[in-house]
Hints:
Blueprint: E1 9-13, E2 39-41, H1 48-60, E3 77-78
Antiparallel strand pairs: 1-2, 1-3
Amino acid sequence: MNDDMFRWRLNVAAVIIDRSGNVLLGRKNPESKHLHFPQGGVHSGETYEHAIVREVEEEVGIPRSAYTIVARWSGLRYY
Length: 79
């Protein structure tokens, strides 16, 4: 097994698209040149769905009652 594998943790990311087709992207701060989807690590014992609901609420303030999860992909990790 590759040692790098143990430095990466499970991650979730939300691609949020409104009814008009607009995609939500954010910046960590106003000076950042990088755009990203709401995302973050999965806590120990947490399901992927719980993690994404938590991250979306924490990062953009959208409550679970305001959206529908329509697709899921697995295998995301971040360093």
